[in-house]
Amino acid sequence: MNAAPRLWKELCESADFVCYENRLGAFPIFVGYIKTLTETDVLERSILGCLSDNPNASFEELFQLIPVAEKEICEDWKRTQDKVYRGYVAIQYGQDSQQWLLINAAATKGRSVAIPEVEFTVEGPKEGFVESLDTNLNLIRQRVPYPDLRIKELTVGSISKSRIAVVYIKGITNEQYLNTCIQRIEDVRFDQITDSTLLQQMIEDNSNSIFPQTIGTERPDYVAWAVSSGQICILKDGSPTAVFVPVNLWLFFITYEDYYLPWIIASVLRMIRMCSVLFSVYASPLYVAVITYHGQGISNVFLPTIVSSRINVPFPPVVEVLIMELVIELLREAGARLPTKIGQTIGIVGGIVLGTAAVEAALTSNFLLIIVALSALASFTTPVFRMSATIRVLRFPFIFAAQIWGLLGIVICTLALVAHLLRLTSLGMPYLVPVYPFRKSDLYDTVIRPPYSKFHHRFSFFRSPSPVRFDRKKAAAKKDIDE
């Protein structure tokens, strides 16, 4: 270590940095690398072996002789240092040389491609993204073997030096959206980017909104569909989540499994999903409003049941609802944070025990227990987790408004929500498009999933330079199977 070049002294302070001095030739050759990041086979066979066999080779000759594809000659010490921290081996001739030969010998350690953990599907491929950026790009390339597929690499984070890949198809992706996306990533000023979900929040149009303006996925087939539709995919080395933009509200209620099912079945499931979201948001607030202010509107069929279930409950409806909602959230958080086996037990047993005990102790009514349980189940139907969390939080302002103003409060909250959504954008694209601004031609593949014969044009709100997928007149000559 004492013989290391002067510029290498800072690297030598780390215990896992190795500075090897080769004196077989006429002048000393220094080899520096971080052993925890370097592949031993590549180092010993391709680099050190080549040095031993050619001790008198010049700098340029050694560059040609080392049998590694990724290598370069660098004259910038800062870049050399960054490369060493990424698993590269640096070679310097003599103590005072200002040139370094950099050879990629990075060790590829990590889990292999496996089934997606979050977006599991019955139909379709079972491969999911992993933490290796190169592996993830390989999965996308396999599904989009198209010459115009472009990948632009960026580096973000003053400490983490995170590799970011922006994936798009030239000629299909709108240049304005692409430039905006790249500019926002380059403008990020943060020291540690540990996951793509952090980057999601930093490039959104409105970071103060509870509604997500990007969609994360761990499915390569979903990303392949998105980029072929004109969207932009963002991946980060070390993260199994790919992010794509721009998006609208309706994409959050679409699962890619819809495209593997017959279009009628997929459409029914999609409508159930959207109705479930409305039920999850409005069920508890409507209960509070009706019981507190609008009891005369309850049907005589349900009135005896509701009165008998609430006769011994000492709390007003709003307190009763808040208690049950908080219990559900506690069970959900406990089940998510505990180990898998224990979490499942807590969720099932805790729900049954607490629900039964709450009714027997007259802390809540049977009727409300059913409503809250159904609301919780309905919120789970949302395919994207971030939107599911948004729906969970959204219920509470509606509950408080229903307690203060009754049904009028629910209407006021709804108007405020719609006004917020009307102002929201994703990379400048309106969040409620194609409903607002209204575009009749783009209404397909929103509430229903149409047959593939209707996918002859890409969505116009993605502003693709190539809006046509296929010639529908030629396709009409041979009917699709699903028509």
From TrEMBL:
<comment type="similarity">
    <text>Belongs to the GerABKA family.</text>
</comment>
<feature type="transmembrane region" description="Helical">
    <location>
        <begin position="343"/>
        <end position="361"/>
    </location>
</feature>
<protein>
    <submittedName>
        <fullName>Spore germination protein</fullName>
    </submittedName>
</protein>
<dbReference type="GO" id="GO:0016020">
    <property type="term" value="C:membrane"/>
</dbReference>
<keyword id="KW-0812">Transmembrane</keyword>
<dbReference type="Pfam" id="PF03323">
    <property type="entry name" value="GerA"/>
</dbReference>
<keyword id="KW-0472">Membrane</keyword>
<feature type="transmembrane region" description="Helical">
    <location>
        <begin position="241"/>
        <end position="259"/>
    </location>
</feature>
<keyword id="KW-1133">Transmembrane helix</keyword>
<feature type="transmembrane region" description="Helical">
    <location>
        <begin position="398"/>
        <end position="422"/>
    </location>
</feature>
<dbReference type="InterPro" id="IPR004995">
    <property type="entry name" value="Spore_Ger"/>
</dbReference>
<dbReference type="GO" id="GO:0009847">
    <property type="term" value="P:spore germination"/>
</dbReference>
<feature type="transmembrane region" description="Helical">
    <location>
        <begin position="367"/>
        <end position="386"/>
    </location>
</feature>
<dbReference type="InterPro" id="IPR050768">
    <property type="entry name" value="UPF0353/GerABKA_families"/>
</dbReference>
<feature type="transmembrane region" description="Helical">
    <location>
        <begin position="271"/>
        <end position="293"/>
    </location>
</feature>
